[in-house]
Amino acid sequence: MSAALQVTAFGLALLSTLFLLLATCTDCWMVNADDSLEVSHKCRGLWRECVTNMQDGVRTCDQYDSILADHPVKIVVTRTLMITADLLASLALATLLLGLDCITFLKEDPCAKLKMCYGAGVILGAGSILGLIGSVWYAVDVYVERAMLVSHNIFLGVHYDFGWSCWLGMAGSTGCFVASVLLTCCLY
Q1: Least confident stretch, 17-21, 74-78, 123-127, 149-153
Q2: Fewest CB within a 10 Å sphere: which of 32, 75, 102, 186?
Q3: What is the C-alpha to C-alpha distance for residues 143 and 149, in angstroms, rounded to an integer?
Q4: Cα–Cα distance between 137 and 135 in angstroms, integer?
Q5: pLDDT the model gives residue 34
Q6: Are 20 and 167 in contact (CB under 8 A)?
Q7: Phi, psi at residue 73, to the nearest 5°?
Q8: Domains of the chain
Q9: SS3 state of residue 181
């Protein structure tokens, strides 16, 4: 039972870590949500903004000036939280891999392997919380920005909603959290 639970948690952690990495690297955190009158599809990410022409499919991207340049707080905070979540989830994944019962590393000391799995669960939980805070922070800021424009009757011609990268970050963080719960609560 313990080995099956470990392998299940490892598979979930691996998939969720990949989701977190993809969410951090991709550039569709915000997408324009206007109706079919638009001739282009706009995506804003943590690193650049892309526009795709709907008629011919040509995509052009403008990278933000510099990592150290003046950026909105939501981009800086989300970048920081997502990169930290990626690093913690990757560290937890490596630790969990070495702590699995089916791996021959430290085979003579099952107590140490169990501690490694538990430690990986704690690290994975910390990473999942940071990733979830980053994703939700960005989503709430998009919503507040849109609500402020609507409350002041300002229409800029572009209406943004949450993009698939934001949802991918939330899904990856939630998966890491579930794997953390499996490793810390259910393994013992």
Answers
A1: 149-153
A2: 102
A3: 10
A4: 5
A5: 63
A6: no
A7: -60, -40
A8: 3-186 (1.20.140.150)
A9: helix
Burial category of 153 from C-beta neighbours within 10 Å (exposed 0-12, middle 13-18, buried 19 and up):
exposed
Helix, strand, coil percent values for the chain (each to nearest 5): 60, 10, 25
CA distance 48 to 25: 10
Amino acid at position 96, single letter = L
First to last CA, the chain: 11
Distance between CA atoms of residues 125 and 145, nearest Å:
30
pLDDT at site 37: 58
> What gap in Å lies between CA 103 and CA 21, rounded to an integer?
25
CB 64, CB 47: distance < 8 Å: yes
> Tokens for 60?
């052009």
What values do phi and psi take at 56, rounded to 5?
-115, -5
In terms of Cα–Cα distance, which of 14, 15, 16 is closest to 132? 16
Six token digits for residue 67: 């990592």
